[in-house]
Amino acid sequence: MTSERRNFHRYDLSLPLTVRRADTGQATEGHTRDISSRGIYFLIPSEFPTGCRIDLTVSLARAGMGEPGSFVAARGRVVRVEPRSRNGDEPTVGVAAVIESYDIIRSAQIPS
Questions:
Q1: Is residue 34 part of a domain?
Q2: Maximum CA pair distance of the chain?
Q3: pLDDT tens for residues 59-72?
Q4: For position 49, which CATH number holds?
Q5: Confidence (pLDDT) at 10
Q6: Containing domain of residue 68, as a range?
Q7: How many distinct structural domains can be found in the chain?
Q8: 45 within domain boundaries
Q9: Dihedral of the CA atoms 11, 14, 16, 17 (nearest 10)?
Q10: How far is CA 98 from the centre of its chain?
Q11: What are the phi and psi torsion angles at 107 (to 5°)?
Q12: What is the pTM of this model?
């Protein structure tokens, strides 16, 4: 019998995101599979090493969840990497990360 170790509810959401390695600045785009206030699982085309610090930007507007230009800016750390494949398309990597801090930025807060 397995027990659930998570203390925070995860939401199954597919949202566009950009993830950047804090050490090298290498960035890539992908999408979320699920997210909570303390963790995120996302799919990207290239692997980020376990333990590396990351900066994430998750767009909320595309999913109809906020004003145009609304997004979540987060910092975290990669805790698990899973090589995957998406129906024969180019290889995809699943990444689980812990979220250490985040801010929700609304379009009205973005300087013009």
A1: yes
A2: 54
A3: 886 445 555 678 89
A4: 2.40.10.220
A5: 84
A6: 16-109
A7: 1
A8: yes
A9: 40
A10: 10
A11: -55, -35
A12: 0.80
Question: In terms of Cα–Cα distance, which of 18, 11, 9 is closest to 71?
Answer: 18
Amino acid sitting at position 90: E
Q: Is residue 96 one of the residues assigned to a domain?
A: yes
Contact assessment for residue 85 and residue 91, using Cβ atoms and an 8 Å cutoff: yes
Residues 6+ apart with CB under 8 A from 52: 21, 22, 23, 77, 78
Q: Which amino acid, residue 25?
A: G
Does residue 1 fall inside a structural domain?
no
Instruction: Give pLDDT tens digits for 20-29.
Output: 999 999 999 9
Q: Closest Cα partner for 76 from 92, 91, 58, 63?
A: 58
| Encoded tokens for 20 | 């950047």
Q: How far apart are CA 3 and CA 63, in angstroms?
A: 32
CA end-to-end distance (rounded Å), the chain: 54
